[in-house]
Amino acid sequence: MVALKVQPAGSAYGVSISASDSTKSAMIRIAGLEKRFKTRSGETVNALTNVNLDIRENEFISVVGPSGCGKTTLLRILAGLESRSSGTIQCDGAEISGPRPDVGVVFQQATLLPWNTVLTNVLLPAHLRNDKSEATVKRAEGLLAFMGLKDFAQKYPFELSGGMQQRVAICRALMREPRILLMDEPFGALDAMTREAMNMELMRVWSEERKTVIFITHSIPEAVLLSDRVVVMSPRPGRISEIIDVDVGRPRSLQTMATPRFGELCDRIRTIFGAQSVTATSL
Amino acid sequence: MSDASKPAGSHLLQSIAVAVVVIAVWEGTCRGFDVSPIVLPTPSSIVVRLYALVSSGMIWPHLWATLVEVLSGFVLGGIAGLVIGATISLVPVFERLVYPYLVALQTLPKVAIAPLFIIWFGYGLTSKVVITALVCFFPVLVSVIAGFHATDKDQLDMMRAFGATKWQTLMRLRIPSALVLIFAGLEIAAVLAVIGAIVGEFVGAQVGLGYLVVTLNFGMDVSGVFAVLIVLSAIGLAMHGLMRYAARRSIFWIRRSDAPMMH
Questions:
Q1: Bond before A157 cis per omega within 30 degrees
Q2: CATH assignment of B40-256, given 1.20.140.10, 1.20.58.100, 1.10.3720.10, 3.40.50.2300?
Q3: Residue B164: which of A109, A128, A156 has the nearest Cβ?
Q4: What CATH architecture is A2-102+178-282?
Q5: Which of B65, B83, B107, B121 is buried most, with the most CB atoms less than 10 Å from its CB?
Q6: Around Cβ B221, how many Cβ atoms within 10 Å?
């Protein structure tokens, strides 16, 4: 019953957000974003409908939602890997039309090149720009040291654990000194313990090198722990159900997860999902 | 493969023991039942015959001819397979225009074309090299095309997200990932090369181990035939071992990983 009270007010809520006056400080503006796919059988699938979201500089935004809600599609469009069907998606007032140099991406798989050493993998973005300077190598080594991988620079990815591989991938994304970090369920393949350690690591990185982070995840606690705001999405059609402010002070730690406010926020997001499944079954 | 680290020595010993038993049974059966050496020669007589073929120097010109055919056929067929496979994979127009014909040609039993090649290229070395090259060509071609198709989609996205050009993606990602399957194709081709050369020699030749087999068979020298077969399988094993070694050096990341990247 409680669940039914939460309005999954998708579009209406979204519109009110973009109309609200956070416009000045918005770094990324997503307005009326739509993405339609054609399936093999010829029917059209709405991966994203009427997505409106403003993201401030240095904000940590998480996007949660069940599979098929379009969260990965949203991130791929932000990364310039996917085109949109309609709507606008701007960064500093300029349309995002392809991969940008000031964006770093971390994927669900570490996607390291197995024939290159850890150091060469981290240097990849620099090598792609034909930057082979000594300073760049120093910076890569610095990043590896920062991530606790100092002794692994000359190892190959297959000699590393899954968590270490993902840390290398984060170093590689930071190598371009991006202003925006896009992360697509980066810790989804890791076990729970490693995942928590990586969450702490990521918070440390974010507090030292301030960046705008858009973080896709399945995990509600992970989203609440890391974020300033949590975007809750729902599927069929993929849309934003609600955007939740995480009014929990920083710095946060694993103990934060034991506080009542943390639990309330997690519950609230769960309730939104619950309301969705009620709607789904009643249809 | 997985538990090969510790008991490798005992595995080897077991294999040798099996061989010793088989040879002993073979020798015993031939002697015990007085099997005619024209039907099945004893292992000892084969060894004696092999020694005679080597010490008399009779085998060397044949061995040399076959080796040249196998190696040059393998190299030529391999290069053709690599070049054409890469072209088909990287130039979509080519895939549409050429690939159907190559598939059609592939279904043709190469042995059946061998007599034609003897007419076109004569009884000498050339026809055998061409047949061997053709036999080697297809597995390499198919593996190159499969290799380029097998590039990990996530890694392609990663390269794109980091602003790689088409050329950079090719050099840094697509070619190295294709290598895994290309080496599998080269390994098959290396073994097929020996078959190609022998088939060519069967159809028409004046020299070579295939020619020697036919000649010895004609003279009912069955232990001699067996002796040549030993040499042939040694060549096959050597070719295979060479490719294995090259693969281990080149695609070192496959062997040791349980492949977190290659699923």
A1: no
A2: 1.10.3720.10
A3: A128
A4: 3-Layer(aba) Sandwich (3.40)
A5: B65
A6: 20
